[in-house]
Amino acid sequence: MNPTPGALATRGRPGPAVALGLVILCIEGYDLFILGSVGPALMSHPDWDVTKSTLGLLGSLTALGMPLGSIAAGWAGDLYGRRLPMLVSLVWLSLSMLLSAASGDLALFAATRFLTGMGIGALIPLVTAYVSEAATPARHSLQVGAATTGLPIGGILTGVVGRTLLPEWDFRWLFLFGVIPLLLVPVVWRLVPAGTRDHPRRDHPRRDRLEAANTPTGTSLKRPANQLGQLLAPNHRRSTLLFWAATFAGLVIVYGASTWLPALMVDSGYDVGSSLEFSIAFNAGAVVGTIGAALVADRGLLKAATIVSFLLAAAAMVTLSTPQPRPLLLAASAVAGSGALGTQALVNIYVAHAHPARLRGTALGFSLGVGRVGAIVGPSYLAAVTVLIASSKAGFYAFVVPALLGAALIAMLTPSRRPSGAEQPGVSAGAPTTS
Questions:
Q1: Which own/partner contact pairs does 219-224 have at CB distance under 8 Å and 24+ positions apart?
Q2: What is the DSSP string of 251-307?
Q3: pLDDT one-digit tens code per residue, 138-195
Q4: What is the pTM of this model?
Q5: If residue 92 lies in a helix (H) or strand (E), which one and from where to where?
Q6: Tens of pLDDT along 339-364?
């Protein structure tokens, strides 16, 4: 597998890129998890008649916009550079959250959640690709992982705000905080490069020659319009499809939990305040787990770290379904966060590792875009399970299936075949082969 080409693209300044990526994804995490935090208040709204099935539908509508945003932004990022698509996505996300706060009926609110999903879907591949290109090769997983902890940090803020303001405040006021991305527009303009720079000879010269040999005659490796064809070419196809499927499984867990964790805790006998405490623990665990797993990944164990994270998600959900002392349940919620958000961060890092800069945005965009079907299915899948199975444990056990599936899919990735010589720093031994 190739060493990460990033540092050259941003002149060796990973610190500002990591900080900016973290702030952007923190705001995005707030926008993502706000629906789960206001879920109990939303279901008690006197005029909107929101049921569990309605809440699942709202979560799925949010997720429905994400594939459009992910695929379009990933492709545009490779075509126009990261800056312009990132600016457009930030403005889009802010305006969508403002419309959510101003919604006077459930139909308009549902439409704004779809628009919000498009903005959320666009920013994750753009930020991941940008930070990946700025990262130091030996600390690639750690630096990209540190930026992606913004998502669970935003979830923590959502839980804190929800616990502080609900149920006294109208839940729609909490969506006003989503306009903060507008403040980042000048920062993005200053820090994010206008274009991307690829360094094929520094990235992996042997792989680039093989990619050229596997590219149909007349097809240019540099033409963004042909990016999807390159991802599905023989040298990338197997790992591409496995990444898509693993992302599907991971996002079933992430978006199912983001929508349903507080409500599941209420069904298990906890009050709204307690359920939000579990949501905070879930996201705090994602922060710690992502950093810990990234440190392990940078020692050449990215594949093993990702598999273990999926398995931890399954074990944690089983624990949450059983009566345990409160400290243990909080700890299990933290492990579940690590196994959900932390695992998806590792999958995104894996995708960034496995592709050169000219394909990275498109690879991330399509991986997240196709995998977003899991985000669409996740909330409704959990809603269906909780409605059809009259048990408070059913929702927790529903998470175990995608967790085990994700672990199996990552295990199927073929390790890279290295040339003789010392292993390069920052390169994962479990990266899929592309040659």
A1: 221/358, 222/358, 224/75, 224/78, 224/79, 224/362
A2: HHHHHHHHHHHHHHHHHTT--HHHHHHHHHHHHHHHHHHHHHHHHHIIIIIHHHHHH
A3: 888 899 989 988 888 887 888 788 878 877 788 888 898 888 889 999 999 999 987 6
A4: 0.74
A5: helix 83-102
A6: 888 888 889 888 888 777 778 888 88
